[in-house]
Amino acid sequence: MGPSIYPYLSLHLKYTFPLIISRPLFSVNKSYSFLFKRVMLPNVHYFSTKDWNEVYANYKKANRESKQKNDNDEKIAVFARSVFAAGTAKRKNEIFRSKSANEAQEHQENYRRGRGFKLPDHPLTTAEWKNLKENAENSRRFEIRVMNKMLCERADINVAKSFLAYVALETGTVSYELLLKYLALCVYANRHSEVFDVYDIMKSRFKAFDNAANGLFMRGFCMTERWKEALPILETIKKLSVPSPRNYADVIDGAVRHGDIATAWALYNEILDTGIIPKQQTWQSLFESGLSDPSTVERLESILYYMRDNQIYPNESVAQSIKAWFERLPGDKWKGRWSTGEPSAVCESCQVKLESLQLTEEEYRQLKDHVMTDVIEGQDIFSKTTPEELELFKAFVKQNPAFDVVIDGLNVANTTIRGKQSQMLLEVVSQLKKQGWRVLVLGRKHMLQQSCKWDQRHMSLIQRRAHCFFTDNLTEDDPFILYAALHSGNHCVFVSQDLMRDHKACMPNSAMKRLFFKWQRGHQLVLNTWILKKVHFQFQTIQDYDTIVQTDKTSWHIPYDADGVDRCTFEVPQKWLCLTRK
Q1: How many CB atoms lie within 10 A of CB 294?
Q2: Residue 460 domain-assigned?
Q3: What per-residue confidence (pLDDT) applies to 89?
Q4: In this predicted structure, which of 89-103, 341-355, 373-387 has the lowest mean pLDDT?
């Protein structure tokens, strides 16, 4: 068994122990004018990773002094890195879940102390297994629970064999379900002879196998000289359903492992024809096969173009295989280096300019049209607003000059940790107004009513310093924000903590989803707020370059997922493979 067979097991373990984040942040007062400088957004400063490293020592000193002055002074640190940087979501989630993570860890410790069922560390006799079942707290489905535990703990095969022998003697047979779990254990442990034995047993007892059994047999066979027996099993799966990427990956790996490169590429082309996204293992196998077969240069380069077109990133193991393949190419001499992107949009290693994150005029037009059609005027738009309100807002936007920044008023106000929400919103509006920006604040009507959170003096100042539109309290304002930002032009940015995943999902195809995400990363300002005597805030970094596989024929730049970094779908890698001709 492995994570590939039972992914839910690795998923559970992944969240059992929290990642300890020791990197603190430096607090910067929002009143400092030097915070707002940048080329793309000329009056706003965005802190890079290097900036935070440089001021780390000052932060520690300031933090110590602050604690000495007032032990009760609150300070809540946040992430200086972009919300779209790989691993950010997991790190934030682990901070917020620290308590529950500790409880989960305690549960695991209790389990290890013997409060849970403990497997034997050596084979047992039939009598011993029978006695174990009789003394179990719950004997219901005892056999299934024991086999599941063996899979979880990667039990010794001989222990599993003794257990199946007990089951056979007690019941006169071993069920399909138990054999399937035993098969998974054998495949995971690379016990090839046992896999063959189970295959013979099940083939003699059952007329057909389900996809789970077929997949396990394919994987087991493909690790041996009998790998070609997996091919008819693959054909059997095709008659019932579409084979999974894992099914193809196992057979391709077996073909490459045993030198049948033609079969490997034929199966890879079959994957692409069915529209399935290949497994990382498949790409790694093909690049490793290319180390001994220089005739596959165009085919292997086509994999990189496929990654580019579909905004897919190789993992670190695949990136290492790509690097090794390039460096062993005959004729052209390539050099691979591990790199990162600089804030100036150049590769840290070779100083080549990386592709801009800004949309072309044609891309912007396409995105604007689709957002209007699929998000603003979608089938369920009037479950989020009313026809009258939507038309009123459209007229409002058209009557005003193009905006430079659109603020999700309620969302921004809710980022405050202390004080009135209206004050937080006023601070953000005031800073942007000082830079000469034309500001639009989208809010809700309840914000105009005096309350402990909404001071009408603050709201009056906001309405003087920015254009404001207040929707009904039940209206979903995200479509209004997108409409105003896109209608104002490619220069307009928007301020919100909302990652707009639902609206990205409304895009009609994967290409438009990628285009929406590209525009979002280049136009969304996200606030970081923290407390050090009073509320401070800053905007997260917006990078100038696109995180996508790219080439200029003399170099390749490939972003990849580093080991140990769990990237969400709305995040992009921070590590790059730089390949240049010598």
Answers
A1: 13
A2: yes
A3: 66
A4: 89-103
Between CA 468 and CA 475, with CA 469 as vertex, the angle to 5 degrees is 145
pLDDT in tens, 112-142: 433 456 899 999 999 999 999 988 877 788 9
Q: Report residue 336 as tokens.
A: 């691979």
Rounded to the nearest 10 degrees, what angle do helices 230-240 and 211-222 cross at?
160
How many domains is the chain built from? 1
Q: Which residue has the tokens 């390039």?
A: 326
For 468, the domain range is 361-539
Residues 6 or more apart in contact with residue 238 via CB below 8 angstroms:
none
Rounded CA separation 236/238 (Å): 5
Domain with residue 427: its CATH number is 3.40.50.11980
Identify the bridge partners of residue 440 per DSSP, sorted by sequence position: 406, 467
Please name the helix (run of DSSP H) or strand (run of DSSP E) that holds residue 557, with its range, or none: strand 555-560
Which residues pair with residue 405 across a beta bridge? 439, 493
Kindly state whether residue 255 falls inside one of the protein's structural domains: no
Q: Are 406 and 484 in contact (CB under 8 A)?
A: yes
Indicate whether 80 belongs to any domain: no
In the structure, what pLDDT confidence band is assigned to residue 534 with cuts at 50, 70 and 90? low
Identify whether 90 is part of a domain: no
Distance CA 462, CA 508 (A): 37
For residue 554, how many C-alpha atoms fall within 13 Å in the half-sphere facing its CB? 5
Q: Which of 206, 172, 10 is nearest to 183 (CA)?
A: 206
Distance in angstroms between the alpha carbons of the first and the last residue of the chain: 44
For residue 484, what is the enclosing H or E element? helix 478-488
**366 CB-side CA count, 13 A:** 16
Distance in angstroms (rounded) separating the CA atoms of residues 65 and 554: 52
The answer to whether the predicted template modeling score (pTM) of the entire model surpasses 0.85 is: no
pLDDT, residue 533, reads 54
Q: Coil, strand, or helix at residue 442?
A: strand
Q: Is the pLDDT of residue 79 over 90?
A: no
Are 449 and 441 spatial neighbours (Cβ–Cβ below 8 Å)?
Answer: no
pLDDT at 40: 40
What pLDDT, in 10s, does the model give residues 86-116?
766 666 666 556 545 555 555 555 444 334 5
